[in-house]
Amino acid sequence: MKSIQDLKKLATIPGPCLTILEPLRDPVVHRTKASEMLLNAAQEADRLLREKGFGEEDREHFLAPIRNFAANTDFAGRSGGVAVFRSPGFTQATFWPDELAPKVTLAEEFQVLPLLAGLTAERNYWLLALSINRIHLFRGEGTRFSEFTLPADLPRSLADFMGFDKPDHDLEGRSAKGPSSGAGFGVRFGTSSVPETEAAHLHDFFKLIAHTIHPIMGRDGAGDPLMLAAVPRELALYRVVNTYSPMVEEAIHGSPDALGFERLHRTALELIAAHNGKTGKAAVGQLEAAAGRKLLLTDPLAIASAAAAGQVAQIFIQPGIGGDKSNEAVVNRAVLAVIATSGTVSWAPEGLDGFGQNGVAAILRYAASGSPGEPELATAIL
Q1: Separation CA 99–CA 28 (nearest Å)
Q2: What are the domain boundaries of the chain?
Q3: Which residues pair with 93 in a beta bridge?
Q4: N or C: which end of the chain has fewer CB within 10 A?
Q5: Residue 165 phi, psi (nearest 5)
Q6: pLDDT band at 291 (very low <50, low <70, confident <90, very high)
Q7: CA distance 46 to 267
Q8: Which pLDDT band, with edges at 50, 70 and 90, does 181 fall under?
């Protein structure tokens, strides 16, 4: 599970829905005890099912896939957490990069709120290191940073590219020496200088790179931001041919080979953190604009109702959603409805004004009809 869109299937599964979230290491002794913790969670799930009226045979059938997963999975060397989703006819177990707080819930929808921070944070990214001598595509996932293997037929340098295909940018002209000279004895002259010619070839080389890696990043990265590392000329040329979005505004300046792997990684982490900060500021503007157009909701029940009708374009969830468990359930239901209707889910930055005690806000696709008897949906930020 890599993105919010991976939750879309979960949003369509009918209940009863069992959600089990567990850390892979005991938080006290810091040892891997995932099997034991999952089996204990299955015992808690058995109690919840019994309270719902499930008989012993039905409970055993319902929990068998979870117990099999716990008993037959090698958890050694893993860190983070595990999320298990189970309903009649559906089972999914997902390893999670972050440590998850233990949680077992049985409801009509799967519990996804604890996963949103990890799914919406732009901690995953791409880094394209460019030079005329070598190109590298790196994948950043949290604190992990590794080189992505590019297609074998993609040229790795301008020299390789020139061997594959030489664009007709250095057009050659001839002029005759004199009236008695034959056509084969002309004087050669070029239509562009050497730097201009190299820049033209580099433009086509970068265009090929952009054309090749765009579908890779869109498929494997699900829209994760792209940042560049290069000297100023290469940065400017690649931005002209780039077709991928989103791209981080700031870049790593300098020769990637001279900077080295460790410095590229360290600087990339700094840039993605700054990029996320700008994203948070943009959210403030979005909410203020929506309030001005009376397309903003802050009441959880109103948001859940609008989301079920496909009216919510974007929902913002703030860390530490306040309220009781029933309020949490309403917000969780609203999030799943937004995902199911192709809306956007955003984890709002801490300290963002306008949420009050509910910790949730939604931007509508269109205003309420305002017919008699219908509640007024749009509210302003207080």
Answers
A1: 13
A2: 4-120, 124-177+184-276, 293-364
A3: 84
A4: C
A5: -160, 130
A6: confident
A7: 48
A8: very low
More confident residue, 97 or 64: 64
Contact 307, 337 (CB under 8 A): yes
- CATH code for the structural domain at 293-364: 3.30.1330.30
Report how far residue 239's alpha carbon sits from residue 242's, in angstroms, rounded to the nearest whole number: 5
Q: Which two tokens stand for residue 56?
A: 């012993």
Say yes or no: domain 124-177+184-276 is CATH 3.30.420.60.
yes
Q: For the domain covering 4-120, report its CATH number.
A: 3.30.960.10
CA distance 46 to 218: 41
* Percentage of the chain lying above the pLDDT 70 cut: 75
Q: pLDDT of 116-146, one tens digit each?
A: 877 766 567 899 999 999 999 999 877 778 9
Element (H, E) at 302: helix 300-308
d(CA 365, CA 214): 29
CB < 8 Å & 24+ apart, contacts of 342-346: 343/307, 343/312, 343/313, 343/314, 343/315, 344/4, 344/313, 344/314, 344/315, 345/4, 345/116, 345/119, 345/120, 345/314, 345/315, 345/317, 346/120, 346/283, 346/314, 346/315, 346/316, 346/317
Taking a C-beta distance cutoff of 8 angstroms, is the pair 286, 362 a contact?
A: no
CA distance 336 to 322: 19
Neighbouring CB atoms inside 10 A of 163's CB total: 10
